[in-house]
Design goal:
6 helices; 22 strands; Porin; single chain; 477 residues; mainly beta
Length: 477
């Protein structure tokens, strides 16, 4: 007899809780940052991914506050990801393997903390059990992925930091070297560390994208670049940063990402950050802007495509009220992207030489005793109409969405990337080492409207078919 969907999810929840209880009895040591500062995790973290003012100060000062300890930590995540419907797919066991099944999703090893006076870092190596290597039929249509292993240097940050006084004004300043634009940022609003602070790795294997199309700065260059920059915080109020990113060599398998890689083709790819910060007792506020100009050699989703210039400009804001008992926070981020593909792309891979994409995300969180919490979130993506790029075409050989040489799993029925939806996350942290969460996403629109196209079959698919349930547990040591 087949288990019902409700029974199946209940079994998954019970399995994760039992795992958490088993680990909680044996978990003794705290992660290296906590040991280094002699402070509990809640001093620097509101929840698993959100920093408090103290946490932002620790990062600003180069992860070097406190005393030197053994800088090794690790996290391990088990999870279950379930998409609402697989009815449109070529073969659900191939297109969406492991759907609804409990898997050991990811293992992360960190070298994190104070390395020397004024020098520290957060270096992260990831082993993912849900990689993104696509499998193709003979005609080139993506029919899914093998869920195997993927090892790479994840978003990492190495810093040198100093504290100075200039004209009676305090200035904390430093140098950052990292491999993911915005991973060095102090707040929880920019890409890399924005909400949701954890999302399913299986989604990348399925080719879904939890929030639909995203801008280049929003993860498109993670673990694929090397950046160096200078930053300063003046009077604990004004933060400035200017960095530049270069193409990185991925010759070693332990540093590689599987699947398509965006390739920078110039040595000038500037990133900037400007933010106003204010802390008043339990309350903290931030208003800011950030952005990046990226020159890519080609579009990895379009064979033979021309190079492109991506200009991303973001606006963000954050509010936090943090106490030992009741805490609330809210974040919002808006990113506008303008892409210049050049005249060579017209009628080959795009309708016109210029395109736009905008994304908006916001969330609010309530936390009780740093043990129980809930978040609600909203997201929206839109952009210029580009039928040649976004629209499904079973007979075309160009553009990104066709059945002859496409890497995309899903295509638009309207020629736009329009996507929107809402969701929530409930979490429970029985001890600082354990974080258990249930995340649910509901799509109102996906890739153009209430329906879109499954590229493996040409079948129509409802936006709500991509509604997601993500249940996970992370253990840190």
């Amino acid at each position: 007899m087949k288990m019902s969907k409700t029974m199946h999810l209940r079994s998954l929840a019970v399995a994760l809780v039992l795992m958490a209880l088993t680990m909680s009895f044996s978990a003794q040591a705290l992660p290296s940052f906590s040991e280094q500062t002699d402070q509990p995790c809640k001093t620097c973290h509101l929840n698993i991914g959100e920093l408090t003012p103290e946490g932002r100060l620790f990062k600003l000062k180069g992860y070097a506050l406190g005393h030197r300890v053994t800088p090794f930590s690790f996290t391990a995540t088990a999870s279950a990801t379930k998409v609402k419907s697989t009815a449109s797919s070529f073969d659900p066991s191939v297109n969406m393997p492991k759907n609804g099944k409990l898997i050991p999703e990811e293992f992360n090893l960190y070298v994190a903390g104070k390395l020397a006076d004024n020098i520290g870092g957060n270096i992260k190596w990831t082993a993912s059990m849900a990689n993104t290597n696509p499998l193709f039929q003979s005609q080139g249509v993506q029919t899914g992925v093998r869920v195997g292993s993927d090892y790479f240097l994840d978003a990492s940050d190495l810093r040198y930091a100093q504290q100075s006084t200039v004209a009676d004004q305090s200035a904390a300043w430093g140098i950052t070297v990292n491999n993911a634009p915005a991973t060095q940022d102090l707040w929880n609003t920019t890409p890399v560390h924005t909400f949701p602070y954890r999302s399913s790795s299986v989604l990348n294997a399925w080719g879904i994208g939890q929030f639909g199309p995203t801008t280049m700065i929003d993860g498109g260059l993670n673990s694929q670049t090397t950046g160096i920059g200078v930053y300063a915080m003046l009077n604990d109020a004004l933060y400035l940063e200017l960095s530049n990113y270069f193409k990185s060599s991925q010759g070693s398998s332990v540093l590689q990402l599987s699947g398509p890689v965006n390739t920078i083709n110039t040595s000038s790819n500037p990133y900037w950050r400007l933010a106003w910060n204010h802390v008043n007792g339990a309350d903290s506020y931030m208003l800011g802007t950030f952005g990046m100009v990226t020159h890519l050699g080609r579009d990895v989703f379009v064979a033979g495509s021309a190079s492109g210039k991506y200009t991303d400009i973001g606006l963000d804001a954050q509010y936090q009220h943090i106490t030992d008992t009741h805490s609330v926070s809210a974040q919002a981020t808006y990113i506008s992207e303008r892409v210049d593909w050049g005249s060579r792309s017209v009628a080959i891979s795009h309708d016109s030489a210029l395109g736009t994409l905008t994304t908006f995300k916001t969330k609010a969180t309530y936390d009780y005793l740093r043990t129980y919490g809930s978040s609600v979130f909203y997201f929206k993506t839109n952009g210029s109409t580009d039928n040649l790029y976004w629209t499904y075409n079973a007979s075309a050989t160009n553009g990104a969405c066709n059945q002859l040489n496409s890497l995309l799993t899903y295509c638009s029925a309207t020629g736009t990337p329009k996507t929107s939806g809402v969701g929530f996350e409930l979490y429970y942290a029985p001890i600082p080492n354990i974080h258990i969460a249930l995340q649910q996403t509901y799509n109102r629109n996906f890739l153009g409207g209430s329906t879109f196209i499954d590229n493996s079959t040409g079948n129509s698919r409802a936006a709500s078919d991509n509604n997601l349930t993500y249940l996970y547990m992370t253990y840190a040591h």
